[in-house]
Every structure is written in C-alpha cells, then in structure tokens.
Amino acid sequence: MTNHLAVEMKGITKTFGDLRANDSVDIKITKGTIHAIIGENGAGKSTLMNILYGMYHPDSGTIYINGNEAVIHSPADAIKLGIGMVHQHFMLVNTLTVLENIILGDEVTGALNTIDKRRSRQKVKQILNNFDINIGLEEITGTLSIGTQQKIEIIKLLYRNAEILILDEPTAVLTPQETDELFKTLKVLKAEGKTILLITHKLNEVLGISEFITVLRNGKVTGNTETKDTDKDQLAGMILGGSFESIKRKQNSPAEEFILEIIGVSVRSDKGLPAVKDLSFEVHRGEIIGIAGVEGNGQHELIEAICGLRDYSGSFILNGKPADKDLPVAHIPANRHKHGIVMEYNLAENVLLGREGEAEFSTGVSIKEKALRAYTERLIKKYDIRPAEADLLIGGLSGGNQQKVVAAREMSKHTDLIVVSHPTRGLDIKAADFVHSVLLEESAKGKGIILVSSDLGELLKLSDRIAVMFNGKINAMLDSATTNEREIGSYMLGLSGSGGDKG
Amino acid sequence: MEELLTITFVLQTLRITIPYLLPSLGAVYSEKGGVVNIALEGILLSGAFAAAAGTFYTGNIIVGTACGILAGIIIALIHSIVTITFKANQIVSGIALNILAFGITKFFCKILFGSSSNSERIPGIETLDLPFNPFLLLCVIILGITYFTINKTRFGLRLRAVGENPQAADSLGISVTKVRYLGVLISGALGGLGGAWLALDQHSYTDGMSAGRGYIALAAMIIGKWNPMGAAGACLLFGLAESFTLQFQDSGIPTQFIQMLPYVLTIIVLAGFIGKANPPAADGVPYEKKD
Ligand SMILES: Nc1ncnc2c1ncn2[C@@H]1O[C@H](COP(=O)(O)OP(=O)(O)OP(=O)(O)O)[C@@H](O)[C@H]1O
Ligand SMILES: [Mg+2]
Q1: With bands split at pLDDT 50, 70 and 90, how would you rate the model's confidence at B5?
Q2: Would you say domain A5-240 falls under CATH 3.40.50.300?
Q3: What is the pTM of this model?
Q4: Residues B224/B229/B233/B239 CA torsion (nearest 10 deg)
C-alpha cells in the first residue's frame, strides 16, 4: 500500500517564533502523478516544500520517501533521495554561465578535478534536445530573462535525474506560451514516471494539469481531493475558507487630457541592440494602458526607460511639460528582489524606500519614525500583509506577501503616473483581486497607468486600451472592450498587423 | 643611470613584487569565496617571523619557509572559525588578528632573539647570486595554478558560487562552510609564504616588517577586479612604482616626491582606469541558513 507513495509527510509542524507556518500537516503524494499544492499567500506551501527539500528543519514530523522513513537534514540529503526543487525565488548564481549553473554541485570532472566542459555540455545538450529547449549555454545567467532563468532551474533538476520534482510557483513569472511549454515538459516527465509537486495560484492550471490537490490554509491542510472531483468555485472556497466575489472590469472612461505622451522613443537592450524602436503613444488621465507582448519584445526596456532606469532617445511629455530623466512615477518592477525590496530591511524600511525625501516621513535631517510606523501599519492593514508586524524583516515574509509590500508602497505614492509590471505575480486570488481594485481606484482618481502583464485576462479586465508590442514596436493598439485573447495573441506573435507603429 | 635601468632594475622590481603578489593571490581565494581577509597583513608578518625563527633554528630555509606557511594557515584558521563558523564581522576579526599578530611577533621575537626589534641574521636567498630566484619561479607557478584553479576546476566553480550566492550553492548540496574555509586557509598559506620571502630576502626578521603590504595586496586584488591575472598586474605596478622610488632616491628629484609615487599611482588607477569594480555579491557577508 505504501510503496506507491513517492512522498508521505506525517505530522509536520514548523514554527517561526510564535508563527505556525505548518501545523501537523499530513500529505501523501502518489508516485508518477502531478500533485498540486494550493493556498493563500502565507499558507505555508513553500515552508512545507522547503522542509521536504531539507532547507528547513521541521519541529516535529516524519517524512517517508518511497515508503522508507527518510532523514533529510540538508538539500544534499534530499538530492541523494532523488528530490529536486525549483524555488519560488530562483537559486541561480548570476555571474556564472548557464552551463556552470546547471552543473554546479554535480560537476563532470576529469584529471585534477578540472571540469570536463565537453562532457558536461554533451550531457546538458542531450537534455535540451530531449525537451526541445533552446538556451545558449555560455550566456551569463544574470543577463537572461526570468522565463529563461526558470528553464535553467528545471534543467538543473533534469540534469540531476530528480525523480521527485518540487516546483514552487513556476508559472508565476511565465507568459501563457511559456506556461504551455512548461506543462508539456511536465507531462513528458510524468509519462517517464516522475512525481511532480506543483504550487500555483492559478486555478485553471491546477484543474488543467494536476491529478490530486492539497489545500493549505493557515498552516493546516484544509482540503484533499482528486482534481476530477472538484471545480474552481469549490477550490476557491477551500483556499479562502469562504466565498469570494471578484471585482468587475474597469468602468470609468479616461479624460481627453494627456498625462504622458511618449514621442519617438527608442531604447537599447542590455546587449546594446535596439529593443524599442521609435515608439509613440499617449496615456490619458484616468486611463489604463495595458501592454501585451511575448517577453523580449521591448516591454521591459520601455518600462525601464520611462522609470529612468535606462537611457533612451526621443521624449516623454508629462502633464504637457517635457520631462527630463527623473519622471515622478510609481513603479512596481517585474523582479521584486532585484529592484523592489531590500531583503535585509524590515517592512517599514521597505515602505520608506525611494520615499525618504517626502515630508510625510522626513524632517529633512532624520526619519519620522512614528509617522513611518503608523503609515506602514495602515498599509499592512489595507493590503492584508501577513504577519502584520512593521518591524519584521521582509525576507521572512512569504513571496506573495513580499509582493504586497511593493504594491502597497508604490500605489500609495503621490504621482500622476503609475507603471506596473506583473503586479499580481505570486499573489493569491483574493490579493490579486485587491491589487486590481486599487489600480482601478487610482485610475478613477485620474491617474494614468501603464500595466505590463503576461496575464491577458488581467489586461482585458483592467485596461482601456491594449498596446501589443512586437519586435520593439506597437503592432496594434486594441480597444479592450472589443478585443479578445485570441486577437491579442495573434498580434503578439506578429501573425497579424504590420509590426508598424499605430499608436 | 642607463645601465641601472636594465637587468638589475627588472630583478629588483620583481623582488619587490613578490610580497605583494603572494598575499594578493591569497586574497583572491578568500574573497572569491565571500570572505574579506584583511588579516593578510598580520598573516604576512607572522609568516615572516615564523620563517625567520624556523630558519634560524634549523639552518634550513625550506623548513623555515614551511614554518612561515604554517603560521599563515594558523591565523587564517582563526579567521575562518570566527567569521565562517561564528559569523562574526569579517573586518573586525581581521583587524583584531592583525593587532594580535603584531603583539605576538614582538613577544616571541624578544624571547627567541633577545630583542623585540629584530632577529639575528639568518641564512636567506641571495637574489643576485642565483641565475634565477626560486621564489620568483614559485610565484609564476602559483599564479598559473591560481588562474587554473579559479576558472577551470570544480573547487574554483564552487568557490565562485559560494561567494556570489551562497544560498544557491547550499540548495545544490554544496557545503558553503567547507568551501569558504578552504578559500581562507589557502589565502593564509599564500600570505605566510609571502611573509617567508620577506624574511629570507632580508636575511632577518625586523619588527613590523610587513609594513602595510597586506593591505596593499588587498588593494591590488581590487584593482585587479578579483581576478588572479588582474591582481598580478596590479602588484607588478606597485612593485614598479616602489622600484622607481629606490632607483631615483639620490637623483636630485625630491625624495618625498618619489616616495609619493606608489600612492598616487594607486589613486589614479583606482579612480580612473579600472572603472567599476564588482566584488562577488556575497563578499563580506556571513552565510546564515534560513532555518
Ligand atoms: N524564514 C522565515 N522566517 C520567518 N518566517 C517565515 C520564514 N519563512 C516563512 N515564514 C512565515 O511562514 C508563513 C508561511 O510562509 P510560506 O512562505 O510557506 O507561505 P506560502 O504558502 O508559500 O505563501 P506564498 O503563496 O505567498 O508564497 C508566512 O507567514 C511566513 O511569513
Ligand atoms: Mg511560497
């Protein structure tokens, strides 16, 4: 009976201070299946998986792998047992090449412990071919897109021949096309008899690919079901412990007046190649402009240019005045760890980031500690950030809760222009919905918003117009009331449109 | 003047470069792995003292050199225990060890040689008598090995990973502690060897003879952007500057001006030529497991 279980975790409890991140969790994973683990932000999903992978040590509980009790003190133990994990926050060494990152810790060596590059490369190439993945092995990892980095993480597991694969929110950072590719890979792996534990907040994905589902809530298991016996509403109920009504799509329509005019802007990529080519469009007061596009078509560079993080040619006109380098803009960046937060700072300090000069928080000489604290506590409450403690280091927060901190800070800035990239990445359904409602609120106040997202549903729900970027230009400017995912998709791939600028 | 600027000048420059180069390469090992090792100054000094003492008692410069290396390793071991195992601040530990090394060498110098300012004369290496300088040969070999180790071997790859993103390395089953210890211990050995050269070159130990070379070696490593070849180039530059100082001491140019040269050079090079230097991302940061 037990030997068809790849993993069994019994009575797992893990506390951080007074916080019970896992509370006597029992979970059984059948060999050769895809098992989804879902739950709110902070429910304890990552903690449980980190315990299985030996990164965290449980206070109590037992783990069985393939029916045998296992002692997993470190990732090294887990790897020996055939367990591999793609972490919610990637574990890549940015300065190393792709090949070096893949082989790290399990290197093919020759005489004098030198790395046998030829054989390593062969071994990795074989995997790339098997799964039809294309990555330059000599590229420096830190310069690659998040989607590519994700692939590298998965190749790392395959390289180690992991039999039990843990994927902690792998799709949060992927475009729909990349997600499809990933799921194709996962199905192949399952067919080979591998066991996959998948964490995601996207219920469509859960229903589409998994066979079993376990729901966590406040550290406890609140549901266990076969996927075929459940549906979206029931899952949402189990996740949230009650029903939940999501917001309606954007109601207000934009004013005539422009907040931002982008005129003939060109931007170069990290590699110095033209990424945005002579692009122009306007953002009206009260308007949300969605930006769609397959990653690498210039969205990222455009956003960085607007936010003053990258050089450009052309001009930005803000509220009728030509703007110089420093546009006052609120910005939720795509990669929160790189640009959004400082892991060694507490919540209040992270809320202060980039706002140190505002009179609300500064006397001109020192920080108004009390005011900052009160302000942080208000944001914590409004955004339901958990645990609700202003002086907690942000590194101890779950991924979704870190994202809430960034969103809370940026959306409460007093700027006319808000630029957001993937604002709901990693958020649970309720938190994502809340961020949507704040974006709509801010636009109703007359702010202009540029929203980059790979979630077309999100774009359609929030935007007035959707600019589809292809090859550094706007391939189509679509009215979101009349377009649909299919149409956007074909412009994204350049199947329709001229590739010319219609803005 | 003309002929002075030839062979003798080159040999002198190389001779002066050695005690910069060895600790500088040591620093590469340590810092690539994420541990700042300013204890190299004290390591250099202790290495010099131990080498002098060892040579004095055995009459054998090879045994003496081994003593120097050992002394360097011991101080590096203390630095590792304090900063890697107990995760103390690396700068503070380094400074404390430097102070300790200065005191201890003085103390033992008095006991062994009856004077706290210098040792008795010891057998050493006559650079100019030999067709080649064995230490110089050693330096070239070590430079080659270091370049190779850092860039081509498993240990080098792991060292770079551990200094850049220790958590990633940990997640792949690599022991961050072990790799960092090894890096620091190697830096101790190389620093100790550099110290041995100082004593053997002068045929004696004099109090405080490291004279800031450990710090300059660190600066050279930074100028060299944490790369062995770059560090070697920077050390050579310092050696050259110092050699000029000696050369032109009585040439009519004010000596103060000449003596400024190495420092001016450092500042110019640091400010102007190397551009932005990117240290390993986790350099100086103790690794704390999340648990
Ligand atoms: N290293 C840590 N130190 C302190 N608290 C932690 C630590 N790791 C997790 N926690 C806490 O444990 C709880 C569970 O976190 P966990 O990361 O497992 O959530 P999650 O279900 O993965 O959420 P998300 O969907 O947002 O990623 C959270 O309240 C979090 O703040
Ligand atoms: Mg998580």
Answers
A1: low
A2: yes
A3: 0.88
A4: 100
CB–CB contact B280 A91 (8 Å): no
Chain A residue with CA closest to B160: the answer is A96
Alpha helices in B153-269 (DSSP H): 154-164, 166-171, 176-202, 213-223, 228-247, 255-268
| φ, ψ at A466 (rounded to 5°) | -120, 120
pLDDT of residue B107: 95
What does the pLDDT look like over A355-394, one tens digit per residue? 888 888 988 888 898 999 999 999 999 999 989 999 999 9
Q: Rounded to 10 degrees, what is the CA torsion of B212, B217, B219, B222? A: -160
CA of A385 to the centre of ligand 1 (A): 12
Instruction: Enumerate the domain spans of chain A.
Output: 5-240, 258-329+415-492
* pLDDT at position B115 over 80: yes
CB contact under 8 A, B160 and A85: no
Cis-peptide into A254, omega within 30 deg: no
Q: Does domain B2-276 have CATH number 1.10.3470?
A: yes
CB A56 to CB B291 under 8 A? yes
Hey, which of A397, A430, A435 would you mutate to test ligand 1's pocket, going by the most ligand atoms within 8 Å of its Cβ?
A: A397
Per DSSP, the three-state class of A53 is: coil
Q: Are B93 and B82 in contact (CB under 8 A)?
A: yes
- According to DSSP, residue A246 is labeled P
Nearest CA in chain B to A100: B157
- ipTM attached to this prediction: 0.91
pLDDT tens digit sequence for A45-84: 999 999 999 999 999 999 999 999 999 999 999 999 999 9
